[in-house]
Design brief:
The protein has a two-stranded parallel ribbon with strand order 1-2. About 45% of the residues are buried. By secondary structure, it is mainly α. It folds into 2 domains: about 250 residues, MetI-like (MetI-like fold, Orthogonal Bundle), CATH 1.10.3720.10; about 230 residues, MetI-like fold (Orthogonal Bundle). It contains 26 helices and 2 strands.
């Protein structure tokens, strides 16, 4: 039985969710209208040229590293059989468990003078020679390498999903025409994987733009870092908003490029012969080289940071008697749990509104709700500042009318503003998972329930939610960990005198004593490993006979 009032309520909530996602962008546009004539000569002369250059080079460099490692590893693991391949299936995506800022802090600590690598080199050569051999990671090339080693799994996961489903027809046609393995990869497999590669590169670029901890620590003056310094160091909210518009324009270009990369590519398998290409066995030196090529990026992106954090945590006492890290962990868990519950509920309503009552408003609401992930945390925090302060002002005015004491900064002081930021930024996660879950539930189930007089809410509670449990669990895990790792929005919107694990690590690194925050960093990584492994829990797609 259809329930018009329930359907209307769900559609209304979905529209309000979309409005909440759009509100920070509208707020930034309004803030950017304020004139700041004294600031722009300085920005044009000393800030923007370097910021735009470093941002462009960082995006291109990280994209190239992620594409080379991710696509290459995906092709080797999906198309070939060699010793150690089963281990690589689980190991290769694990760098996603390391936030970019943690990787930067770890590698800068390892390679600085008198660091662990320097001391190891000094045992085999004079001290001055050891310093000359050390790479300078506090540079643009260093940032490209470190961030690329952490983010390449986005390309790997999307490309592997495509490479695993290669039809045997294409491989056989290429072989008949005399193409070897490399030619088949370059001329057939790679063009067919273009949509997947475009999606992976878009995610890498968005994460690179969102980064502030790694770029700032390694001395790269990106546009994100420039917005941060303009807002906090120069005290110009309007100037930061105007720079944010440049950032949003870059994001719009990246999204258009991603859509262009997926356009006009259609990969259809034969309905009569849906065989998948068999994996090519690699033995001896070829198999060893394939394993090494895939293992080295995973070891550098995941194992090295993890072992360093474990070593430093053990040196300082893994179960430290210092209560600050556990207090910060409590703050982190509380904020992330509230945001996860709110985003799950809101994501479910947005998807249900479209399923119950498909309309232009429901479709637009879903599209806008999923766009929040494209907003960098710093830009999102800047855009939320004016709305949450306006809400706090309204609450104080209302309290005055009611002759009650002023409640102060309710939204900011209670952490509500930070929870809202988490929900807006990561709402795409539950909507994506839940939408995929609903696509596995036949619409016939809904029709059957209505035919016996079941209301929409009853159908949702008794039939759909039990079938959606895996999707909801996956969304909750990924959401929770994304909130744990988020740094820019947390840094700017957290309540006064409240630290989370991410901001605590940032404070230690800013003081030049990152190793003291190793336990906090280890807790973030430990919490991030299960969801990454969950993403790779599916077994290999069965291949056709060789």
């Amino acid at each position: 039985m259809k329930s018009p009032r329930i359907q209307l309520a769900a559609t209304t909530i979905a529209a309000l969710a979309a409005l909440a996602v759009a509100a920070p962008v509208i707020s930034i546009a309004v803030l950017a209208l304020q004139p700041v004539p004294d600031l722009w000569p300085h920005l044009m002369a000393y800030v923007l040229p370097q910021a735009l250059r470093d941002t462009a080079l960082l995006l291109l460099g990280v994209g190239a590293v992620a594409l080379g490692i991710g696509a290459g590893a995906a092709w080797l693991i999906s198309s070939h059989d060699f010793r150690g391949r089963s281990l690589l299936i689980w190991l290769t995506p694990l760098p996603l468990a390391i936030p970019t800022y943690l990787a930067a802090y770890v590698y800068a600590d390892l390679f600085e003078p008198l660091g662990l690598v320097h001391r190891a080199l000094a045992t085999a050569m004079p001290l001055t020679d050891a310093i000359r051999w050390l790479p300078n990671l506090r540079s643009l090339p260093g940032a490209i390498l470190v961030i690329g080693l952490v983010l390449y799994p986005y390309v790997y996961l999307s490309a592997r999903a495509m490479f695993q489903h290669r039809s045997a027809d294409f491989a056989e046609a290429a072989k008949v025409l005399g193409a070897g393995g490399w030619t088949t990869f370059r001329r057939v497999s790679l063009p067919m994987a273009r949509p997947a590669l475009a999606v992976g590169l878009a995610l890498v670029s968005l994460e690179t733009l969102n980064d502030i901890g790694a770029s700032e620590y390694l001395g790269v003056r990106t546009l994100t870092v420039s917005i941060f310094t303009t807002w906090l160091n120069r005290g110009s909210l309007a100037g930061a908003a105007q720079l944010s518009l440049f950032m949003l324009a870059i994001i719009a270009v990246l999204i258009l490029m991603e859509r262009a990369g997926r356009r006009d590519v259609s990969v259809e398998f034969s309905a009569e012969n849906p065989r998948l290409s068999p994996r090519t066995p690699l033995k001896g030196i070829k198999g060893w080289l394939a394993f090494t090529a895939c293992a080295i990026p995973a070891l550098l992106g995941f194992a090295v940071p993890l072992l360093y954090l474990l070593r430093e945590s053990l040196r300082r006492g893994l179960l430290s008697s210092e209560t600050s890290v556990w207090r910060d962990a409590g703050h982190t868990i509380a904020l992330a749990a509230i945001a996860t519950a709110a985003a799950l509920l809101l994501g479910l309503i947005v998807i249900v509104a479209q399923r119950w009552r498909s309309s232009r408003l429901a479709d637009v609401s879903l599209a806008v709700a999923q766009a929040g992930y494209a907003l960098p945390g710093l830009v999102l925090a800047l855009g939320l500042l004016a709305p949450v302060l306006a809400i706090d002002g309204a609450l104080n005015t209302l309290a005055g009318w009611l002759q009650q004491g002023s409640p102060g900064l309710v939204m900011v002081g209670s952490g509500a503003a930070l929870v809202i930021a988490y929900v807006i930024r990561f709402l795409a996660v539950p909507t994506g998972f839940i939408k995929a879950g609903f696509e596995r539930i036949p619409v016939d189930y809904d029709d059957s329930a209505r035919s016996v007089g079941a209301a929409d809410l009853t159908t949702l509670r008794r039939i759909q939610l039990p079938l959606l449990r895996p999707a909801l669990l996956g969304a909750a895990i990924v959401l929770f960990v994304d909130c744990l790792k988020e740094l820019p929005a947390t840094l700017l919107l957290r309540p006064l005198n409240v630290e989370t694990l991410a901001t605590s690590i940032y404070q230690y690194a800013s003081r030049g004593s990152f190793e003291e925050g190793a336990l906090a960093a280890l807790l973030i990584v430990a919490a991030s490993i299960p969801p990454v492994m969950w993403l790779t829990r599916f077994s290999d797609v069965p291949q056709g006979p060789a």
